[in-house]
Amino acid sequence: MAKLEYRTALVTGASSGMGRGLSLWFARKGVKVYAAARRHDKLEALADQARASGATIEPVELDVSNPEATVARIRELDEACGGLDLIIANAGVGQQMNARRMEWEHVKRLIDVNVAGAAATLCAVLPRMVERNRGHLVGVASLAAWRGLARNAAYSGSKAFLSTFMESLRVDLRGTAVRVTCIYPGFVKSEMTAPNKHPMPFLLETEEAARMMGKAIARGEAEYAFPWQTAGRMRMVKARPNALFDSTMRKLR
Ligand SMILES: NC(=O)c1ccc[n+]([C@@H]2O[C@H](COP(=O)([O-])OP(=O)(O)OC[C@H]3O[C@@H](n4cnc5c(N)ncnc54)[C@H](OP(=O)(O)O)[C@@H]3O)[C@@H](O)[C@H]2O)c1
Fold it and tell me: What is the pLDDT of residues 198-239, one digit of tens each?
């Protein structure tokens, strides 16, 4: 692949899983990566690992569930580095819960991180990117955004928000040089999926998923759903009439 055009990038949720993998993927291609998350020790270890291979990762302690602090911190970074070229809103939390036992605290936690946190990350320097006529915004949604999956009202709902948000950004930014990419992963090995007891078809290794996502971002894809097997199945699920969809979900439940 040709040299990437990004000088700097910010990746949220970089202390584990796909965010960690994406940070390493871009840093090893010569991009200076600001890797953000709450667990500073994990970010330090990631920076050390990058340094050992001649790449640059700067740890950034950040809790995206505080949107005001997130916006302020990203604006600071943007000024300090002379303009962020790539922002990947990847930080996310997931937890299944049957609506019959729904708790507001659970729903709020997912909205704070997956909705407010992602939107704050993506909005922080958007007008500056437009002014510079340069930049790339990436949101990591999920194939779970395409339908309201059983036991996933908060998760599917939060990712549907991000998916629609990214689509509107893309429409509004057409005609500028600021690009928009929305990513829809299927099952990927990570801290998030480790506790899952149910089958996870076509489960991908974290590094493989990060490599696929990195390449799709570098190609400037508007949307990237993967792996193709799960994305294909979910496209069919998306088109199912409600009665058929509900009965499939009832069986899963
Ligand atoms: N794994 C899958 O199968 C899958 C499928 C579809 C979509 N996704 C999405 O992919 C993204 C990455 O998930 P993953 O699977 O790689 O999970 P993961 O290993 O659990 O990583 C989640 C990351 O988000 C960070 N995070 C959580 N809460 C945060 C907060 N309040 N502030 C800042 N960072 C926070 C975590 O860091 P700290 O705890 O250190 O803050 C961690 O680095 C998520 O948006 C997820 O919804 C995952």
Answer: 889 999 999 999 999 999 999 999 999 999 999 999 999 999
Residue 91: other Cβ atoms inside 10 A: 25
Class of domain 8-252: alpha beta
Q: Two tokens at 59?
A: 């740890």
pLDDT value of residue 250:
86
Q: Hey, where are the domains in the chain?
A: 8-252
* Residue 184 bears catalytic tag: no
Any ligand 1 atom below 6 A from CB of 39: yes
Give me the mean pLDDT over the 123-139 stretch.
Answer: 98
C-beta 17 within 6 A of ligand 1: yes
